[in-house]
Amino acid sequence: MVTRVTAHHAEFGDPASTVAILEALPEAVPELARAILEGFASGSRGRGPGLTAAVLERLARVHQGLDGPGRVLLTQLVLGWGAGAAFDPQRAEAVAFLEGELEREDLEPLEAGFAARGLLELGAPDEVAVRLLAALDLDTAPKVAATVLEVVGLAEGEAVGGAILERLPALSPSARVAAVQLLTRRAAWTGALLAAIEQDELPPSVLSAASWQTLRQSPDAELAERARAASPGSSGGGAAEVVARYAGALELEGRQERGRALFGEHCAVCHRLGGEGGEVGPALDGIGATSGEELLVHVLDPSRNVEANYQLWTAVTFDGVIHAGRLLGETRTTLQLIDAQARTTTLEKEEVEVLQPSRVSLMPEGFESLGEQGLADLFAFLRSQGDH
């Protein structure tokens, strides 16, 4: 509430009153001071008081009275007002504080995000992103690594994509997954990732089936063609041939408990069954009445009969970020997508350069990797769910 009120004042109020409000912050509890500073940053949009020498001196005194995060926020605010070199000492102090924060062993994900975003804003984004990557290793807490990687994704340079690829071997397994996913968000980075796969520097399995599905439907025709050529099973014929090749799964005796585990591992993130699971794809209650032949087609050729509500949409923003998923909602000004990992993204329509539907399902192909016995186990579990 405080942040919203302050943002409204910053946008519509008298800029001349801003400095007086800020001068009261050293006496406020740190959390309140930070909320007010965040409100000014959100609402002022570069519109601040005239930065005369006297005003800058007053703001420097405010700076000295705040805690570390408060000093960072004030520095960002004043630099956004155009202080330039006049606030360089405060910029240097903020950078040093944030770098020290990232070295803390007890760093929480929210603190890591604040520090990483602050460094990105106060420095050259691409250079900062490369330094952030260099600080990640096997010992970095998974949630901290994921948060820092999200911030790295805000940088745009091609060199950042190369740095992510170079850093992959040093990352923990979960961080590697997040880093590879990050590489699919910008065309230049995706091209570098596909080149590494094409040159056998990385295995195709570094990308999930859902990610391959997205890349094969890329609005960049060249990337889509490369993805189709490099994706697992690309030389094995179409989905209909895969269905025919794995029909033997219908002759095997399935193990329901093993099938339950496979459902939890591969399907539950998207499909709801018996009141549990995700909502990316359609609910599967009553699926027990489905024949084995139909299940085989649904799993191995999900795009054969795709419902309009579950088709894949790809949006590319003007800054080159690619988003793909099912269209979850739409207002006059926004679009909301949900991807195959059940992550939602809300986009402002004015930020979207390209929006196109695909004739394929959001559900990825590639589940033949379970093998005939794995498919038989999964089907045994699904067909036992008729009364749920």
**Percent helix:** 40-55%
Proportion of residues in extended strands: 5-15%
* Rough outline: elongated
The Cα radius of gyration reads 25 Å
The secondary-structure class comes to: alpha+beta
- Can you count the helices? 18
Instruction: Give me the side-by-side strand order of the main sheet.
Output: 6-5-4-3-7
Largest sheet: 5 strands, antiparallel
What is the strand tally? Answer: 7
Unreliable residue stretches: none
Along the chain, the helix and strand elements come as HHHHHHHHHHHHHHHHEEHEEEEEH
**Average pLDDT rating:** 85
Give the CA-CA distance, first to last residue: 44 Å
How is this fold's topology laid out?
Elements: H1 2-12, H2 18-23, H3 30-44, H4 53-64, H5 68-80, H6 88-102, H7 109-122, H8 125-134, H9 142-152, H10 158-167, H11 173-183, H12 187-198, H13 209-216, H14 221-230, H15 239-245, H16 256-266, E1 272-273, E2 276-277, H17 292-300, E3 311-317, E4 322-330, E5 334-338, E6 344-348, E7 352-361, H18 371-383
Antiparallel strand pairs: 1-2, 3-4, 3-7, 4-5, 5-6
Overview of this structure, please?
There is one protein chain. Helix content is 51%, strand content 10%. The protein is of the alpha+beta class and 388 residues long. Helix 1 (2-12) packs parallel to helix 3, helix 3 runs parallel beside helix 5 and helix 16 packs across helix 18. It is elongated, with a radius of gyration of 25 Å. The model has no long low-confidence stretch (mean pLDDT 85).
Descriptors for this entry?
388 residues; two-stranded antiparallel ribbon; 18 helices; 10% strand
Q: What's a quick, concise take on this entry?
A:
With 388 residues, the protein is of the alpha+beta class. It has helices at residues 2-12, 18-23, 30-44, 53-64, 68-80, 88-102, 109-122, 125-134, 142-152, 158-167, 173-183, 187-198, 209-216, 221-230, 239-245, 256-266, 292-300, 371-383; strands spanning 272-273, 276-277, 311-317, 322-330, 334-338, 344-348, 352-361.
